[in-house]
């Protein structure tokens, strides 16, 4: 059976999915799995698409100390027990920089160029690239495709793309990229089936999870995003602050004596909901907590979503639909309800019963703006992009890249 393997690697986990390739390029999900607890309590878990368990195994720390070791364990299980021998492997890569505006077949040169953006996405980029290097070293004939979270936002016009800094810096790549693009691309492709009347109109999508951002879409394309040069900007996140006066960074450097690397670690790991609450970076724990600081963190999260929705509505000159997606957006009816209250001035009104049931359409019949909950599927997008490159006749010896 022909198949596509999708890999999404983080600092402490490697998530993978396998899609069967059926007639006329149709993809069918076969397996979902992950190796988590890398370097602490490694564990391999996998199930069939219907959630029937296939594997659940613990390993000693020294067996899986890093991402390459996790890839080796997952790969051996897929080959030897699941009997999976993929046609190609698709990867999520967070930052494509100014060079890459579409998925690309990967070689050592591409990896070297993508390494330049590690400092722009230090929580993600190094770990995204680790499995690519591992497969290049051990299985060099298997085509690999990098799919970028920044690519969907390359349709931004110059006003949304620039900072008010000298043009030379923009030419060097200091610009507003936007992230979570694979998620937004999936929503854009799903909306014509879910809500054909508004799919090509003015839509705000809120990707709310441990990483959080919002995107303004028109005609199915991104026109503005809350994130910019790095994944620190915009909404507060689990451990990242969101919008921050650059003067705060200067203060940390000059007055607190922090080094650049200390500031980077602080902004990516110790801020956001975790820093504001002092309790947790997990929204579920914060909502359940009676701690006043936890309440402040939740209130702040909702408040900033409301502010950024206003900004995106201004960019669109109105709004015809609002979509919630990702972990918090898909699962927290209370956050959705509170955000909807913030958006009442735009004509948003929820149906409490439909919201509690996590229905697809959760707005009231009287709402001027329909509100949807659409589960995202970044892995399916990666598999589709990977298959498309293969079907277009590209091979490891016929690599193409779009450099802008």
Automatic annotation (TrEMBL):
Its EC number is 2.7.2.1. Mg(2+) binds at residues 8, 378. NCBIfam families: ackA. Substrate binds at residue 92. Pathway: Metabolic intermediate biosynthesis; acetyl-CoA biosynthesis; acetyl-CoA from acetate: step 1/2. Transmembrane segments: none annotated. Catalyzes the formation of acetyl phosphate from acetate and ATP. Can also catalyze the reverse reaction. It catalyses: acetate + ATP = acetyl phosphate + ADP. Its cofactor is Mg(2+); Mn(2+). It comes from Bradyrhizobium yuanmingense. Homodimer. The record marks 180, 240 as: Transition state stabilizer. Mg(2+). Can also accept Mn(2+). GO terms for molecular function: acetate kinase activity. Its main location: cytoplasm. The active site is at residue 149. InterPro entries: Ac/propionate_kinase, Aliphatic_acid_kin_short-chain, Aliphatic_acid_kinase_CS, ATPase_NBD. The gene is ackA. Belongs to the acetokinase family. The lineage of its organism: Bacteria, Pseudomonadati, Pseudomonadota, Alphaproteobacteria, Hyphomicrobiales. ATP binds at residues 15, 207-211, 282-284, 327-331. It is found in: Cytoplasm. This is Acetate kinase. It is an enzyme of class 2 (transferase). Keywords: ATP-binding, Cytoplasm, Kinase, Magnesium, Metal-binding, Nucleotide-binding, Transferase. Pfam families: Acetate_kinase.
